[in-house]
Design a protein that fits this description.
The protein has 70 residues and is mainly α. Helices cover 63% and strands 0% of the residues.
Length: 70
């Protein structure tokens, strides 16, 4: 990847790509009342377990005023 060649970003590639993917997932689901985890995993080319894990850590961020308990 060209990011590895950048002297400023090279050491931060993994975190940078993780943060970009996390932001994309949040933007993807924000307008919906529900999402299909299978489709979402396919769109982002990850496993359903990865998507589920992401949501388990991000639930409060995505739905800060929700009455639903984890």
């Amino acid at each position: 990847s060209e990011v590895l060649l950048d002297i400023h970003l090279g050491n931060h590639e993994d975190k940078l790509f993780k943060d970009i993917k996390d932001k994309a997932i949040i933007q993807y689901v924000s307008p919906f009342l529900s999402v299909d985890l299978q489709k979402m995993a396919q769109v982002f080319n990850v496993t359903i377990q990865s998507v589920t894990l992401f949501f388990s850590f991000s639930f409060n961020y995505l739905f800060p005023y929700s009455n639903i308990k984890k």
